[in-house]
Amino acid sequence: MRKIPWSKVIIYSLLLFLALSVLIPLLNLLAMSLSDPKRVNELSGLGILPKGFSLINYKILLSHPLILRSIGNSLLITIVGTLLNLVLTTMTAYVLAKTQFIGKKVVIIFLIVIMVVDPSMITEYLLIKDLGLLDTYTSLILYRAISVYYLFILMRFFNEVPDGIIEAARIDGAGHFKIFTKIMLPLSKPAIATFTLFYGVYHWNEYFRATIYLTDPNKWPLQVVLRQFVIRQDNTTLLSGLSSESYDVLASLDFPSLQAGTIIISIIPLLFLYPLILKHFAKGALEGGVKD
Amino acid sequence: MKRMRTLSKIREDWVLYCMLIPGITYFVVFHVIPIIGMKLAFQDYRIIGDNVWVGLKHFKLLMDSSAFFDVLQNTIIISSMKIIFIFPIPIILSLLINEVRSGPFRKYVQAVAYLPHFLSWVVIAGVWISFLHPLDGGINVIRDFFNLPSIDFMTSKEHIRWVLVFSEMWRSAGWDSILYIAAIMKISPSLYEAARMDGASTYQQMKYITLPSLASTVVTIFILNLGFFMNAGFDQVFNLSNDSVNSVIDILDTYVYRIGILNGQYAYATAASLFKGLVGIVLILGTHYISKKYTGNGVW
């Protein structure tokens, strides 16, 4: 039998330990949310299998009007926001990466300055207020409509498209807009998929601007509702949405399990996208040197 | 003649300028205006009418405020703890992962390690609050197994900064290791072959080939991290803080949020923001030039 060196044993067990320390807290919440509310107190803090099995937590959460509406709000902000991100970022990246025009250098320096100097959350808030955008979805859709980091990385991707193809199209009489939509976009599908995921995850997870820009709970995205339930432990809001449930159901509820369920609901879309994210973005990050 | 050519070139490229307009407009409205708006730090805010210039009034108030020095101190302590205890972890992780031949084990470990990066701080705080729960949280189950008393980490002033350090590590160590893994993959395999032929052990290869090749990446990332030194992790503190521990983890950004957004002292809060921003720029430029002088490596 081949001898396995000690160093390998140590390295593999260390990595296994690290992987488990990421997974167990998450699986524990999943197990908690799927447990039978009557038996959930048997579940250990390290347990990853539900005690009994019940979907009651999800049934309750997904019939809660505030949560349902917030999922809709999150989807709206994420989809419209990401589309806007993609249009603005790809169009700007094309002009800056693939063309020569007077003033290009000035624009690039301007963007570098933008990247280094961040405005204060106070003046950003006052701007949104002055524009009359408080309590509108638009304030969140427009927030970070282009990330300068992603713009620069996308420019690097665009630069790899061979100039010959563009030259050929130009000789055939194609203008810039046609070259952009008919050549650049189709040729950079993998890069665009990557940035769709990047931006999408960003919008889905955004909660802070939503907290300060939106005072109307009916407009809150899921992350803000999640924060209200889980971080601020606001059980009253959670309960008040359940007025249609019978007293017996309410009495049997376990709040930590409901909170765990809300966390899981907010992660589910990410888990569906995660294999795609890994395929595209870990690769993109390796090549482009992405630092969030 | 030259001007004529410039003008005709601009006219010829009008489509390009049109394509730039939306992006540039966005940056001007949502970045430049709020940056210029930071002149508010030198003014008094008026709801009706123009703001009044007051010079350094708010900065003087800041310097006289003990609350400001408390949050400044917390910011420096928390950021230093993070740099000391978190910065080396992705490097070590990349070295460990590099020792694993590509295959399912490596793939799954990487997939799991990157996952927390994609979770929001609200989710991460929820996960950690549950895992650190004094009664049945995972950590206290382990402590109980070793007959140690249970600790309520979330309300303990002694422990809460460590909760910040470890939760940040949990979130970012895996993802940040990508940059180092990429740098390691660029090292020529012939170096390792030659070393193995000379009888170098795994450890010696790591020490004499991998680590020196990572030096410039390490320096660049270190300097970039220092640029964020004054941030100390707003989202994290915002979601993990509570009344019992707020005094030891209240940082500059949470202070700005509280006095600015919650209390409406816009000008004073902007002054604190501006102070923070300037220190950040000084730190990043300072370390860049020092590093450039002594090691030859910098950010640019």
Q: What is Rg of chain A?
A: 24 Å
What do the pLDDT scores of chain A average to? Answer: 89
Write the H/E string of chain A, N to C: HHHHHHHHHHHHHHH
Question: What is the alpha-carbon Rg of chain B in Å?
Answer: 25 Å
Summarize the structure in words:
The complex is a heterodimer of chains A (292) and B (300). Chain A contains 15 helices and no strands. Chain A has helices at 6-34, 56-61, 65-98, 104-116, 121-130, 137-142, 148-159, 163-171, 176-187, 189-205, 208-213, 222-231, 235-240, 247-252, 255-288. Helix content of chain A is 72%, strand content 0%. Chain A is globular. Chain A has one domain (80-288): Orthogonal Bundle (MetI-like fold), CATH 1.10.3720.10. In chain A, helix 1 (6-34) crosses helix 15, helix 3 crosses helix 12 (222-231) and helix 10 packs antiparallel against helix 15. With 300 residues, chain B is an all-alpha fold. In chain B, strands 1-2 form a two-stranded antiparallel sheet. In chain B, a hairpin with a 7-residue loop joins strand 1 and strand 2. Chain B is globular, with a radius of gyration of 25 Å. The model of chain B has no long low-confidence stretch (mean pLDDT 92). Chains A and B meet through helix 1, helix 3, helix 4, helix 5 and helix 9 of A and helix 1, helix 2, helix 5, helix 6 and helix 7 of B.
